[in-house]
Amino acid sequence: MKTKQIIQPVTDLFHSPYGARDRQMIYGDLITVEAEENGWAQILSVKDGYQGYLPSIALGAQTKATHRISAASSHIYVQPDFKSRDLCSLSFGSRVQVLTYGDRFCETPNGFIPTPHLKPADTIDADPVALAELFLGTPYLWGGNSRFGIDCSGLVQAALLACGIPCPGDTGPQESTVGHTLPPDSAYQRGDLLFWKGHVAFVYDPETIIHANAHDMAVALEPLQAAIDRIQAQGDGPVTAHKRLA
Fold first, then answer.
1. C-alpha to C-alpha distances, 230 to 5, 146, 197, 235, nearest whole angstrom
2. Cβ atoms within 10 A of the Cβ of 11, count?
3. How far apart are the first and last CA of the chain?
4. How large is the average pLDDT for residues 171-175?
5. For the NlpC/P60 domain, which residue ranges apply (predicted)?
6. At residue 180, what are phi and psi to the nearest 5 degrees?
7. 11 forms bridges with which residues in the sheet?
8. How high is the pLDDT of residue 229?
9. Which domains are delineated in the chain?
């Protein structure tokens, strides 16, 4: 198997060629190619073990990522000048190779990225909820993993991976592997995770959650108890787990 990387800002990861989208991958994500045929690659995601198919055109040779996008999103410019033409947009978490580091712009093989939008690739953030806040207002997208569209498990994964916490891509594996389960009626604390069947949210503060949800069709803050009541009333059941990160 050969290791490659995603070279498009965002690409869908499909259950099968021309099938349904399961998740997405973003620029700089590493994958191993298990098979390739008729313009499709069967791949394994290095960051979380997710398997699926994506168009071969989304793949390129692996390069050494030195930095990652730390803003909600950023642009790659033709010149180190904010008035120059932008080439594409990159989402939070995209991994890039910086060739020349400058006070205002960093040069990459594809153009120039504003320096304030970058952190060294090995930087470990401390507060996943603060990272989730970067996505406030991002439109909800089933299977989405970027600032351009994201779902509940994609939001949690993006925030936790940036904090150095391993995290699968879907809510079921997240519930079974991330953090430790608290007893019923435990106090809510910032950074806790609340799980429902098929849904997950961060506790923002003891009275509020932050989550990507189809009710708002966006990443939004919502009163915690009101969300619990609303989700149960709409037929999606009670909270199945209250978990705390180590």
1. 41, 26, 14, 9
2. 21
3. 34
4. 98
5. 122-246
6. -125, 145
7. 25
8. 97
9. 2-61 (2.30.30.40), 67-120 (2.30.30.40), 128-244 (3.90.1720.10)
CA–CA dist 192, 205 (Å, integer): 9
Q: Beta strand 73-77 with 10-14: parallel, antiparallel or unpaired?
A: unpaired
Q: Which of 130, 142, 140 is nearest to 205 (CA)?
A: 130
Sequence-separated (6 or more) residues with CB below 8 Å from residue 208:
221, 222, 223, 224
The whole-model pTM stands at: 0.96
Res 246: pLDDT: 83
Q: Which tens digits make up the pLDDT trace of 49-64? A: 999 999 999 999 999 9
Contact between 162 and 125 under an 8 Å Cβ cutoff? The reply is: yes
Residues in the chain: 246
Interval 181-235: pLDDT, tens: 999 999 999 999 999 999 999 999 999 999 999 999 999 999 999 999 999 999 9
CA nearest neighbour of 91 among 166, 149, 33, 132 = 149
Q: What does the pLDDT read at residue 1?
A: 77
**How many Cα atoms occupy the beta-carbon half-sphere of 53 within 13 Å?**
13
